[in-house]
Amino acid sequence: MFARTPRFLLRPGWPEDAQALYAAIADEAIVRNLARAPWPYTLDDAVDFLAGDHDPLQPKFLVMKRTQGVPRLIGSCGIHTQDDGALELGYWIARPYWGLGFATEAASAVMQIARATGVRNIRASHFTDNPASGRVLRKLGFRPAGRPEPRHSRGRNRADLCQFYEEGGEGDMREDVAVEIYADREPVAA
Prior knowledge:
Layout: E1 2-4, E2 8-11, H1 18-25, H2 28-31, H3 43-51, E3 60-65, E4 72-81, E5 87-93, H4 102-116, E6 122-127, H5 131-140, E7 143-144, E8 149-153, E9 158-166, E10 180-182, E11 187-188
Parallel strand pairs: 5-6
Antiparallel strand pairs: 1-2, 1-10, 2-3, 3-4, 4-5, 6-9, 7-9, 8-9, 10-11
């Protein structure tokens, strides 16, 4: 599955993306805000991420910035299954692109795709020392679910306080980003 927004092409990762993925994410300031990515992040980690199993009903994309030429890999956004079986939205954007609304646009597209394919009850979270990610989640219509709790981060190599969120109700979730969804080469009715 692929998707297109005003500024991005969201597509699955391919083995030949490993070097670009590594170059975009191998930044401690990014990885420390993720629960599942290790630090230091290596080219082998990028290869493993791209080769990992993928459920076709859980969108998982590389975020490619549309340009006049070849799209540029600037992040990743998707839904994955946690150890307890819950579905969680995750995302990261390369540091040069922070503060430009890119995480909100990409995550909004992924959430619209999830709803279009019947995926519901998605959770999300952010470490409390990363309030920008909390703003993204609230803009998307997620609402806090309880008090912050410790969560382990492989990038930090320790547990830190994390605020967990749950999907807002119908009509609460942001859908103002224009998204074209493609199963292959043909558009999918959302």
